[in-house]
Amino acid sequence: MSATTSMTTFMAREIAEIPAAAEAVLAAGEAARIGARLRAESFPFVVVCGRGSSGHAGVHLRYLIETRLGLPVSAAAPSVVTGYARPPQVAGALFVVVSQSGRSPDLVAATQAARAGGAMTLALVNDPDSPAAQASDLVLPILAGPEQAVAATKTVTNSAIAGAALVAAWAGDRELEQGLSAMPERLGRALALDWSAWSADLAEAPTAFVTGRGHSLGPLREIALKLAETLRLPALGYSAAELRHGPRASVSAATPVLALRQADPLAEGVDDLVRDLTADGLRVHACGGPLGTLPWIGDGHPACDPITMLVPAYRAIEAEARRRGLDPDKPTGLTKVTETL
């Protein structure tokens, strides 16, 4: 038995801190202040820049901006700036960089190029004194506090929550604001959810799939990443619509599927996929809705629930890593700050 089997990991501690971290960023009011500032501006489009877990929070932000504000959102490709030396034509746009450390050189360079190109730049970062923050016109600290595990957890949820609070204020969306106000309590309840039925099903799997639609796309990709980095299990995150196309051919009885389902207009498509996969004899673990097989706390705001679903998934992955004798705090070959160019 490894040392990590009998000890509390940083990852476990930081997952437990998620509700308090969420309360801190929501209470700070910075998202409301910046949202009011953005409401006074007119942007033709938005560009979101981030990698890894921060990029997944950026995908969640994209759906919020497009559904609440009707603005098209593009994902930045930093290598266009750092490798191909082609600054983007972003005059008048809003450029949002999402980063835990704010120190990756490619993200900093992309932000600097966007600002020089006439975009308003906004940094969602855990370190408000980081280079990415210094390169930005506006800074929204996510206030997650120190995070020592290489596998990011509370910085991911707080990035998504800060982005949602920003959009709620920017769009004047009272329902989203109310949904966010319930998040600390709901996240606390989510800590008690046991998804070990899903994680145990991964024991002999050569790979795994995670699926959902709309607001759950960023979180489901985040779960797939955590499976890869923490359990060393290749995992693929697909929209439920995309999974019906080419990827469906590689889903088998040996590859468990986790489906996230929030109560919104896209729920029926997720339910239909769960029914079809189950009818084909495949192993499907679903969260949310009438076909849910995993413990859940009931529907809240549909843009907030996929963030909350990260908590039981994180807990299950952390516990499964320890069961396998892996150290979830120090995944092989990874460091806390990934410096790419």
UniProtKB/TrEMBL annotation:
Keywords: Aminotransferase, Repeat, Transferase. One of its GO terms (molecular function) is transaminase activity. InterPro entries: GlmS/AgaS_SIS (IPR035466), GlmS/FrlB_SIS (IPR035490), SIS_dom (IPR001347), SIS_dom_sf (IPR046348). The keyword Transferase applies. The keyword Repeat applies. Pfam families: SIS. Residues 322-341 are annotated as: Disordered. PROSITE patterns: SIS. Residues 34-176, 198-341 form the SIS domain. CDD domains: SIS_GlmS_GlmD_1 (cd05008), SIS_GlmS_GlmD_2 (cd05009). This is Glutamine--fructose-6-phosphate aminotransferase [isomerizing]. The lineage of its organism: Bacteria, Pseudomonadati, Pseudomonadota, Alphaproteobacteria, Hyphomicrobiales. The gene is glmS.
